[in-house]
Amino acid sequence: MSDQFTLSAAVLQTLRDIVGEDKVRLDAESLDTYGKDWTKVHVPKPSAIVFPKTVEQVQAIVRLANEHELALVPSGGRTGLSGGAVAAYGEIVVAFDAMNQISDFNPVDRSVVCQAGVITEQLQQFAQEQGLFYPVDFASSGSSQIGGNIGTNAGGIKVIKYGMTREWVAGLKIVTGSGDILDLNNGLAKNNAGYDLRQLFIGAEGTLGFVVEATMRLTRQPSNLTALVLGVPEFSAIMDVLNTFQSDMDLTAFEFFSEKALEKVVTHNDLRRPFETKAEYYALLEFENTHEDTESLAMTLFERCVEEGWVLDGTMSQSIDQLKNLWRLREDISETISQWTPYKNDLSTVVSRVPGFLQEIETIVNKNYPDFEIIWFGHIGDGNVHLNILKPDELDKEIFLEQCNRVSRWIFEIVEKYRGSVSAEHGVGLLKKSYLPYSRSHTEIALMKQVKQVFDPKGIMNPGKIFD
Known about the structure:
By secondary structure, this protein is α+β, with helices and mostly antiparallel strands. About 35% of the residues lie in helices and about 20% in strands.
């Protein structure tokens, strides 16, 4: 693999011949912008940024990279939190912004074909215009791209009902590390003709090949979504609330956040607290209010939780605007705390083990970070919690990261004990690869490396991500 951060004139000219003169950028601003994601750990140092518009152009770029053994990094909305889209070692960044077309909508199959650069919100709006719904949703839906969502198997706030991105990918078109084009699954609902290679590329972070096109499934629009925000005195009670509501209702979301998270959001945004009573934690439930007795049932379950001491107070949305404002209390957390350069851990275990899991982690964190502010939130309905450690203003970033990395190993030992994941939905990228053995066996990792060799024999596709 070339270590040169400056490409030869011949390679640059070939790239311009492939994508066009104005679709190759070398200026410092573009190299910085497209060479990184939302992480701030690695300095971006790409050698060039290219903007293909067609599958054939992507294929030509990959073949050129094979010929000259040049590393490629895919770039979508660059909203990743694991360093998966960071180009820190002179790689060529393949940015998919120009591949942003939606086509071939099929109302019978409820499917649509998206190029890799289609923005998540763009697909959501398209589905809405057809009277349908694309349910994978998260705070970065206005800038994340479908190719990146597939590469990281993005989850978000509605996994409890709709699952992760994987559930909505009916077919894929891939350019492999060898420069081959694969059409996988052809949108079929049933296809047991051998291995489903499509699933290998979902969540592979562009290390096996680049997603260039996807057939995405859509579903019916939910009706009259309504949210409840409940104040909960202790974390174990959140699980009691979840069990109580899930026993009698189908939820579309079940989120949680801490009082410290709420304080940050309310202080730094034009938002009100949901109610005057302060609680250690808050649960946000969402459901379809489709029948006259649905709201009555929700209130009955709320009152049951209050009687049991699991809930201190609560509020229910009565309009679309109220629904949006309640959701902002949860969805604005990441953006609000970004000013403190948070050290993020994206952890999961099975739902039933979450209380003990979180309690053990919190004990370790409080013991070793007595002077650091800790922000908890997450998709508790699917066992996913986000631990955010905020950097004190006066502390050097490198020292802060060193201290966090040291304690992370103890946290991941707890993850391993609970048979959980060191990366529930953000991917592995550069930031989590040294911790992969806490979630995957040595045999699994060895097999992953063999799969990588099959699809990317020269190791040019997003090298250094997931594992070395």
